[in-house]
Amino acid sequence: MAEKTRSEKKFESRIPEETRQHFHNARQEFRAGVKSILPEGFFEHGKAARREMLLAWRGMLDAAIQRIDEKE
Known about the structure:
The chain is mainly α. The protein has helices at residues 6-12, 17-37, 42-71.
């Protein structure tokens, strides 16, 4: 299991384990329900779209860095 974040550690002492487990199970069931009503390929398309957006940001940042370097 991945290391817990600071906010997760903070709530461990305030929220009972049973409650946290209930929310975890509810979140998993909600995700399964959403996944069942969306068309096949929806999540793959979303992942590809996020990747393309990050590549666009990379291109913009590379161009900005290049302009800075040209001014020096």
